Amino acid sequence: MPLNCSTNVAPTTRSPIITKTSTSSHVNLSLLFKITKKWCPNRLYKRTIACSRSVLSGHLSRTSSALLMEDLKIDLGSQSGDYSRELLVAVRVVQMACSLCQRVQEGLIGKSEDQVKSKDDDSPVTVADWSVQAIVSWVLSECFGSRNVSIIAEEDVHTLSKFEARGILEAVVKTVNECLAEAPMLGLNAPDRPLGSLEVLEAISRCNSTGGPKGRHWVLDPVDGTLGFVRGDQYAVALALIENGEVVLGVLGCPNYPMKKEWLNYHHRYFRLMSKLSPPTSKSWEKGCVMYAKRGSGEAWMQPLVHENKEFVWPNSAIRIQVSSINDPGLATFCEPVEKANSSHSFTAGLAHSVGLRKQPLRVYSMVKYAAIARGDAEIFMKFARAGYKEKIWDHAVGVLIIHEAGGMVTDAGGRPLDFSKGIFLEGLDRGIIACSGPILHERIIDAVNASWDSSNL
Q1: Strands 246-258 and 236-243, bridge-based pairing
Q2: Annotation-wise, does 443 bind a ligand?
Q3: What are the Cα distances from residue 37, in Å, to 41, 83, 242, 391, 451?
Q4: Do the beta carbons of residue 397 and residue 353 sit within 8 Å?
Q5: Considering 72, 82, 264, 266, which has the largest number of Cβ atoms within 10 A of its Cβ?
Q6: What is the rounded CA–CA span in Å between residue 199 and residue 146?
């Protein structure tokens, strides 16, 4: 899916088409012609030709250049029809969010008392959760217009707005502004001035959509696997786009999940130590990745995180990922949640034994489980929640899409596709969720579930 169109999604200080100097504007005509002829309607292509004549005669003003870029930006978004512009924005903002989370996690380990609050359900929420939600909301609103953006997200501002949380709010505002100041390195606009507390709270509170079967809704889990995050372990940043009840776009940031499978056996603290001794390069010590896919493309991609003070260049060394070809249960690896509160380990262990799975389960926090299957590190993910627990769409939307496009399967235990059109919950879910690298394993697991279910206590 790496795109040939290198156009920025928003005007930046380093456009590949128009670069400004202190005295004039210069246009890369060959690149501009190539992009507009391939992607844009005839009207804009003719305008490009007219502007080029002005350039050659020295009469193209900065205003004309800006207007041309604005037209190009609008037409690319409205004419492509394949969510390319949405993908460009989503990948960039998830990259930014991952960098934010890495910095917060480094400062959080061993200092959780002053940076962790409890939500009503007693799960921890950190500065990173609110900060990521704020920057994603702000960036999407800037790129697509706040009136056109509907966001379903996990966090609200109730706790953060309380007087006793003013210290946390100050930390969130500081973190948000530090992150947004780096937006130009990712091809995004930064605010004209630092955001104030009310503006940050407003950005977070805009993420109040409840979704549904109609319209376009962004779905965000700012820090999926918060317990893993607090403990310095695996977590993810997940951003999906749902249109008319279908997941059409998904970006999954895994800041502690290494690009190379062979590094999975090393603890994350070892990565931090080695990164300090030998800074990450494109060939070594790459900790962290971003995966993404578009519905119907039949392709899923992974790229490394952008390291500090590096500019983002699309597609940023992206490589195509595919699910494992293993279909023998005896050779397969299965994933399950770390926390027993959200899934029955005993039931999944029984299922694993009944189908002949011999390897130890890979217990991983967050949607990193989906990432592991999508790129072939594992073959099966099973989650069977205890009675009364309702799955939320932000915990699964991105992972389901990426696995599908990477060649795998995700259904409920009855073999039906997950339904993301009913609001914030996966309504009508048949018993649990089963993700597999292929149809053979998938069928074996479903058969085992049907055979074992009546004797379970779920």
Answers
A1: antiparallel
A2: no
A3: 8, 19, 30, 46, 58
A4: no
A5: 72
A6: 13
Q: Catalytic residue among 48, 126, 226, 411, which?
A: 226
Question: With contact defined as beta carbons under 8 Å apart, do 319 and 346 qualify?
Answer: no
CB 154 within 8 A of CB 127: no
Q: How many CA atoms lie within 13 A of 442 on its CB side?
A: 24
129 is catalytic: yes
Is 82 designated active site? no
**Single-letter residue type at 130:** W
Q: How far is CA 247 from the centre of its chain?
A: 13
* pLDDT on residue 150: 96
- Pairwise CA distance, residues 19 & 36, whole Å: 17
When pLDDT is cut at 50, 70 and 90, the band that residue 114 belongs to is low
Distance (Å, whole) CA 90 – CA 250:
8
Q: Please report where in the chains the tokens 């800074």 appear, as a residue.
A: 279
What is the SS3 assignment for 432?
Answer: coil
Range in 196-200, 301-305, 383-387, 391-395 with the lowest mean pLDDT? 383-387
With CA atoms as reference, report the closest residue to 6 among 40, 41, 38, 31.
31
CA atoms within 13 Å, Cβ hemisphere of 205? 11
Indicate which residue of 7, 48, 126, 129 is catalytic: 129
Asked if 335 and 378 touch (Cβ cutoff 8 Å), the reply is yes
Give me the pLDDT at residue 73, please.
Answer: 41
Helices (H), 332-396: 345-354, 368-374
CB 66 within 8 A of CB 74: no
What does the alpha-carbon distance between residue 364 and residue 290 come to, in Å, rounded to a whole number? 17
Q: Which amino acid is at 48?
A: T
